[in-house]
Amino acid sequence: MPRPDGAGERPQPRLVDVAERAGVSIATASRSLSGRDGVSAVVAAHVREVAATLGYVPNPHARTLAGGATSVAGLLVYEIGDPYFSEIASGVISAAAAQGWSVQISHTERDARAEAAQLRLMRAHRVGAIVVAGSGYVDPAMENDVARELEAYQHAGGRAVVIGRHHVRCDAVLPDNSAAAASVAAHVLGLGHRRLAVVAGPRHLNTVADRLRGIRSALDAAGLDPGELPVVYGPFTREGGQQATAQVLERHPSTTAVLALNDAMATGVLSVLRERGLAVPRDMSVTGFDDIQVAQDLAPALTTARLPMSEMGSTAFELALRPAAARPRRKPTDHALVVRDSTAPPAVR
Amino acid sequence: MPRPDGAGERPQPRLVDVAERAGVSIATASRSLSGRDGVSAVVAAHVREVAATLGYVPNPHARTLAGGATSVAGLLVYEIGDPYFSEIASGVISAAAAQGWSVQISHTERDARAEAAQLRLMRAHRVGAIVVAGSGYVDPAMENDVARELEAYQHAGGRAVVIGRHHVRCDAVLPDNSAAAASVAAHVLGLGHRRLAVVAGPRHLNTVADRLRGIRSALDAAGLDPGELPVVYGPFTREGGQQATAQVLERHPSTTAVLALNDAMATGVLSVLRERGLAVPRDMSVTGFDDIQVAQDLAPALTTARLPMSEMGSTAFELALRPAAARPRRKPTDHALVVRDSTAPPAVR
DNA sequence: CTGAAAGCGCTAACAC
DNA sequence: GTGTTAGCGCTTTCAG
């Protein structure tokens, strides 16, 4: 832990130093700097000026310990190296920085049990707000630990916001997975495809369930039997997409359109199709989900449903800064169908 | 700030609670938990057991304030949404988590002046270690502020590690940009190309200078005049790559190979070429740099120089945990030429 | 080997 | 309006 070591280097100025230099008491200095009232405007301004020239930055640990407001937020993601999450993180961090907050990131590397542990740690760290990105689980029991941590945190006055549908009583930013999925499916159906297959993420995730529901409703609306839709589950990664595609090709060789439930999986789908010499979109149409940055640069450019990840992150943080409402807020996000080159009418045969 | 509010919820146990339950003094409890000696093994074990059953987690603010060791690291990146940085961040966070550390991320959104400010903040936050990712500047003066902050931090006993910076006196993880670039250029030259052009990032970045140097040395080794190499500078982004490519095409229409100095720019290069109907690699060979995840999925799959980003992150963190050496350590990283489909011999004409 | 007590820098009552 | 003072939870001398 950095500490002045008696050498020439001046240690970081403390509130006392500012107060002394400004000729006021430490209490007045504190009040002036944290913008509370009870100080004459003139004095406050003077104190702030002195603080600035001294390069004073409050010690957040002292501040937190003394019961003041913290300005460190916790952000929980599955995997920060995944573009979906890094774009969300970017939104959170930018919004936080704009308010002078820092953000502490944990990633659980897709290990469900790690989530609760990380939240415990954040709670112990007394972060001022918590944002949980990453899908909730279909089975509420799987979220028990997480819910417990989050509730304890909120119960103690903390502000928590989740992104996605969770079985937790707190504010939430809700991407409209179902409607977005329906629009993708409707697009593919509209092109004339009748033999769709879905390359899905883990079946226990709400995100997956919701997106599937959207697809099925579109099928239903088109007069097709949603019950017959082939769905292959796998990890929400490129590799997951590859494995699932292999299965689709093997078990449902007449498929003309593969709907992947996120862009990472779609990337895997495309790679396998390319490898097997199937042309997209001529021999097979492919869609993704999320519209991560690279979706536009894949071969071919990916038709996908866009979710505003960065905005979801900043919205979540801003929600966390607002005091808790009587009942949990739900902020739906918009979505957009982005049609690119990976979808086309099915080949006639 | 979360605080017990007298309701049924049990507040987080404190050290006193553990001490009381274990029947020892708070000092003994502290010693036992932080694994210092001066406590009998039996007592220490007992205290630890009590702490575990109580679910005790030390309050890091109190600990830090009292002069104990912090276990929060600061990580500074340009833009967390950029795969290059998010992969580094992933490495840092994983390595940190393995040691029970949290990491606080700041991104400067490529604003050089923001760097020093963020470092100031980290210093004020008394983070236990700082990792700075992102290129340094060719002009040492541009890094003055950053260097000053970092030195003050280290002077006070903090541990700082930079990734890819030369002008700061602290431990560094140094990707071998020059050699990696040389290998890419040698590959392209080996294919028979003689009219290369470089799509470069900002000219004031070391990373750019080093990579350029590598390319020039390869040119030199091949008996070509490095002085005649067209270089167009731009932001290290997809858009930067697009703009630069437009210029290359206009001013150096006979170019047969474009070397982009990072994968994001290469993405832009590919998009412009596609738009203009130039086939890669038939009409133009293209290379990238870094080998971010998606490089393999671009159209065509990108030939690039791989840097082990995630490993660079974890190495940096581990370096930060080791006590400072007498003279700054330099950890070179390896690199690898990854040949994919975006390069081929030039068309005969 | 163990305990008592003095802060770390700040906020928030509570006095004036 | 402004100053005084008692902690926040922990580490760390200093006694025993």
How many helix segments of chain A?
Answer: 12
Q: Report the biggest beta sheet of chain A as strand number plus sense, adding barrel if it closes.
A: 6 strands, parallel
Query: Which value, in Å, is the CA radius of gyration of chain A?
Result: 25 Å
Count of folded domains of chain A = 3
Labels describing this entry:
homodimer, alpha/beta, 434 Repressor (Amino-terminal Domain), Rossmann fold, 6-stranded parallel β-sheet, 12 strands, elongated, disordered N terminus, DNA-binding
Helix and strand topology:
The structure is a homodimer of 349-residue chains.
Chain A: H1 15-22, H2 26-33, H3 41-54, H4 60-65, E1 72-77, H5 83-98, E2 102-107, H6 112-124, E3 129-132, H7 144-155, E4 159-163, E5 171-174, H8 177-190, E6 196-200, H9 206-221, E7 231-233, H10 238-251, E8 257-260, H11 263-275, E9 285-287, E10 304-306, H12 309-321, E11 330-332, E12 336-338
Parallel strand pairs in A: 1-2, 1-3, 3-4, 4-5, 5-11, 6-7, 6-8, 8-9
Antiparallel strand pairs in A: 10-12
Helix pairs in contact in A: 1-2, 1-3, 2-3, 5-12, 6-7, 8-9, 10-11
The structure holds a DNA duplex (16 and 16 nucleotides).
Task: Explain the overall architecture.
- Two copies of one chain form a homodimer.
- Chain A has twelve helices and twelve strands.
- With 349 residues, the first copy, chain A, is an alpha/beta fold.
- Chain A folds into three domains: 1-58, 434 Repressor (Amino-terminal Domain) (Orthogonal Bundle), CATH 1.10.260; 72-174 and 310-333, Rossmann fold; 177-307, Rossmann fold (3-Layer(aba) Sandwich).
- In chain A, strands 2-1-3-4-5-11 form a six-stranded parallel beta sheet, sandwiched between helices. Chain A has a four-stranded parallel beta sheet with strand order 7-6-8-9, sandwiched between helices. A two-stranded antiparallel sheet of chain A has the order 10-12.
- The longest helix of chain A is centred in the N-terminal third of the chain and has 16 residues, at 83-98.
- Chain A starts with 14 loop residues before the first helix and ends in an 11-residue tail after the last strand.
- Strand 2 (102-107) of chain A pairs antiparallel with strand 2 (102-107) of chain B.
- Chain A binds a DNA duplex (16 and 16 nucleotides) through helix 2 and helix 4.
